[in-house]
Amino acid sequence: MRLLLKKYKGLSSVPAKAVLNIGLWSSPLLLKGFAVSIVLAVALLVTVSVMAEDTSKHTNTSRLLENDTNDTKLAPVRVVAPSEVVSLSSLAILPLENLSDNPLAATMMTDYLKNEFRDRGLYNIAKTKDVNRFLARRRIRYTGAITRIAVREMGKVLGVDGVFIGTINYYSIVGDTLIVGLNCRMLSVSDGRIVWADNITYTSKDFEGVLGLGSVKSIDALASMVVKDLIGSLKDRFFVRDSYYGPFDIERVITYPVMGQSGGTRDINVRFLNLTDEPTRVTAFMGTTEYELKRVSFGTYEGAVDAPEAEGIHLIDVVAVASDSKSYAFSAVGKVVVDDTPPVISMYASRDVFSTKKRGFVVFEPKLISFEEIDEWDVSITDSEGVVVRSDRGYGRMPVRLVWKGTSSTRSLVKDGSYTFTLQVKDPSGNVAKVSNVVMVKNSPPAIDVDVDIVEDTVLFSFNYSPDEPIESWSIAIVDRGGNIIKMLSGEGRTLPERFEYPIGKDYDVKKLSFKVEAKDVAGNKFEMIKTIPSLFANKTPFAGLKGVQNVIWDDF
After folding, report:
1. Are 317 and 76 in contact (CB under 8 A)?
2. Which has the closest alpha carbon to 16: 48, 40, 38, 41?
3. Could you tell me if 183 and 230 are in contact, meaning their C-beta atoms sit under 8 angstroms apart?
4. Which helix H or strand E contains 437, and what residues bound it?
5. Tens of pLDDT along the chain (557 residues)?
6. pTM reported for the whole predicted model
7. Which residue, 208, 213, 163, is CA-closest to 188?
8. Which of 233, 231, 234, 238 is nearest to 110 (CA)?
9. DSSP secondary-structure letter at 63?
10. Backbone conformation region of residue 33, classed left if phi is above 0, alpha if psi is from -120 to 50, else beta
11. How far is the C-alpha of 322 from the C-alpha of 280, rounded, in Å?
12. Rounded-to-integer distance, Cα 240 and Cα 370, Å
């Protein structure tokens, strides 16, 4: 009799052991009286009735799975047999994973393990050539993370009850100290679970006595001690509950694309590991919708499922029917992710103005604010007319920083002007997000006009320049013929004073004075102007005749 595992109420069943239990506890040898016999008879009749009802329900369930024309929707069911307790009496020892710095450690430690098992006579050990042939045919190179399916298949192919795997952590000589470390696990081929695990690390100093007596001098001897003590923790026999599985198991389920936007369809590919049989019919369930899959090759079935409208993760169940018309369900073996929300990104620019002739550059640092993956990204740099002068793209994770030195796609320096740096990212679902920064390439010095007026005994300086001119620092100085600074005014920031007044005074001869204006923009370009006051007298109007005349703009400036 089989035990049916089902998701719905009303489809429960009674295992065969229930009958045995009732017969045992109501035996006439233990109970007296005719009434007890009546109770026994009634109990047996009820049990048989329930069992018959369960068999009928199983037949109806199979019929619904084969032809879903009924209005009643049943969840996929998995038919399994009662569990039995079995002992592990044979092992397949897989090649050890070697994390030590000794390339021969895996071979030597494996030999020590086999010898220890053989000496103790605990388990029948599968032949090494059979194990290696199995691993080679299935292209298993990393045995430290072998799958449950591979373990189960190994049990059927090699005829073993358990699989022994391990990792060598140490097999080294550090100075005058020997160190050997081993970590091992034993898996049941029934369901791939771990039934035993242990790890031991010994050093040669662990065995030193008084005055160093008893210390281990050979690393091979130390390795043998590690293996002996490790295997010594094994029981003579391990008993596990043998779980019954169907004649095939799912090796992989691939949905493409896994992530995407709502609507449309997603391809699905299911590959079965056929242990004793191959499915005759395979269907996929997402929610309450059923999708028939088509056989394309031995053990491989393909089809398509509809992408839901709701955002989130939608799980896929697979139901396969064997040649004996029994149905086997595999829950949550695949998924479809619906994502209609674009990523959220920002970008920081280290500067907004730089000079290519002074080997300047700008660093862009993009940042992903939302918690999701980036599938593709591309950058473009356009001039003020929208022409792309430089572009690049990549896949996978968004770059941490991007550096632009003012070059075009031909590696030549771009002209002065404003440029827009745009980063566009796309997530695995195809949602797009953009962010932009504007930078200026500037190699020319600041464009500043200086006007000079002389009103009586005062010289007036006026500065005219574009408010967009990125001035970083400036200075204005009046010096005499000997180069001595009479007056100095300087500042930092993007603003020059609109007017600067200097009273000449009686102690200075205006004909011997000159002024110097310097300004530097944020890109490092420098403006410089030096003029002598006597150049003002180049005008036809005598300087002395200008006394009292205001707002005179001299042509020299």
Report:
1. yes
2. 48
3. no
4. strand 432-441
5. 333 333 333 333 333 333 333 333 333 333 334 343 443 344 434 343 433 444 333 333 333 333 333 333 333 333 334 445 556 788 899 999 898 888 899 989 999 998 888 888 878 889 999 999 998 888 887 776 677 778 888 888 888 888 998 899 899 888 778 899 998 888 888 777 778 888 888 888 877 654 444 567 888 889 999 998 888 877 665 555 445 557 887 878 899 988 899 999 999 999 887 777 889 999 999 988 999 999 999 889 999 999 999 999 899 999 999 999 988 888 888 899 999 999 999 999 998 899 998 889 999 999 999 887 888 999 999 999 999 999 999 988 888 889 999 999 998 999 999 999 999 999 988 999 999 999 999 888 888 887 777 776 777 778 777 777 778 888 888 888 777 888 888 888 766 777 777 776 666 666 677 888 888 888 888 888 887 765 544 443 333 333 333 333 333 32
6. 0.47
7. 163
8. 231
9. H
10. left
11. 6
12. 47
Whether the Cβ atoms of residue 414 and residue 408 lie closer than 8 Å to each other: yes
**Closest listed residue to residue 487, CA positions, set 521, 462, 527, 459:** 459
Q: By the 8 A CB rule, do 495 and 478 touch?
A: no
**Residue pointed to by tokens 């047996």:** 44
Q: What is the DSSP letter of 428?
A: T
Greatest C-alpha distance within the chain: 149
Yes or no: say if 342 and 433 are a contact pair by the CB < 8 Å rule.
yes
List CB contacts of 291: < 8 A, sequence separation 6 or more.
Answer: 268, 283, 284, 285, 303, 304, 305
4: left (phi over 0), alpha (psi -120 to 50) or beta: beta
Count of residues in the chain: 557
CA neighbours within 13 Å on the CB side: how many for 341?
Answer: 11
Identity at 265, one-letter amino acid code: T
Residue type, 67: N
Q: Which pair of tokens denotes residue 503?
A: 């009273």
d(CA 320, CA 279): 6
3-state secondary structure 471-496: EEEEEEEEECCCCCEEEEEEEECCCC
Distance CA 328, CA 282 (A): 10
Among 167, 165, 230, which Cα is nearest to 202's? 230
Pair 376, 295: CB distance under 8 Å: no
Which phi and psi (to 5°) does residue 44 adopt?
-65, -40
276 touches 288 (CB < 8 A): no
Helix axes 148-158, 128-137, angle to 10 degrees: 130
What's the Cα-to-Cα distance from 451 to each of 204, 417, 459, 514, 536, rounded to whole Å?
90, 27, 10, 14, 12
At 9, is the secondary structure helix, strand, or coil?
coil
In the structure encoding, which two tokens stand for residue 543, read together?
Answer: 């300087």
